[in-house]
């Protein structure tokens, strides 16, 4: 129960330091000088930090347990969130913002292997719960940021979310004191009869790890690269929509309030998907149809939006929201396509580290192409090219194969 509480609380922290600042940028700029360049840099920090610190997490996990690293990640994020709420210097604000989101980048990578470690027989259900909470943590801070800032100040509004990180660290502090929390792998290997390998092995089988664990190099596996493509270019599209959807629907005839409402609709549709997709994927030998649903609905939504009337915008935005289905699918595949806790660590760090590196380019390229062409058709073509990458990557990583088995054959 303590581990489940820790996983859910950790999931709730993973977007709060990102989405609590965006609605308050103009207010913050009264005390912290932020021009267009620094504001753009502030917007790019989260996916960049998720990429860099996510890629470094498996390296750190060779020396620290996941439980200790969860505590450390929350501590770093607390320092960043509280510190930037107290400063009036632009450079210090940006630096501490890196600290704030660095801890969250580590948490992104930690969650899938922690689910595998504590709940190997309930991967779909637990993943569904934590991805849903992750969606809630994306949607709630923007809704309360402005009212809280008006009632108190922007410093209180942005710093208060550090309390969530403090609470999230407490279960992991309790778990590091348990024997299971002090070790990251079982002490002895399982008998061969209990751990079938190869393409004919049951894909849900989990092999206990030996006391001496070899370094897992996921970049040698086609499965890992498929997951990078699927996760990275789903996020490429989603981050682009979080940045540009209000302007797209404004150009389609809605007012600014309507643009905010459509962005909220896009975000909230991700919540039921987060509950449904991991559970379905865990029951399917090859969940590639779920990936295709996301690709097709995203593309239909894009091109429907281009020629839509103001009254039909909600329909196309809803379809684009369904397109987010491939993100929770990618998260649950980290565990469904690995046999071991170490394998899940390595695959999570590799896929999320590189994936977020691609994701941060989406808003930038969409903006550049829109400015160059003056319309949204060319940016939509770029985003659809990203969806093709998602479809190809999903075809590779959804196949019933295991990371460790692929690497063992090399």
Automatic annotation (TrEMBL):
Keywords: Membrane, Transmembrane, Transmembrane helix. Residues 1-403 form the Major facilitator superfamily (MFS) profile domain. The keyword Transcription does not apply. It is found in: Cell membrane. It is a multi-pass membrane protein. InterPro entries: MFS, MFS_Cyanate_Porter, MFS_dom, MFS_trans_sf. The keyword Membrane applies. The chain crosses the membrane at residues 41-61, 68-86, 92-111, 123-146, 158-176, 223-245, 257-281, 288-307, 313-334, 346-370, 376-398. It holds the Pfam family MFS_1. It comes from the Bacteria. This is MFS transporter.
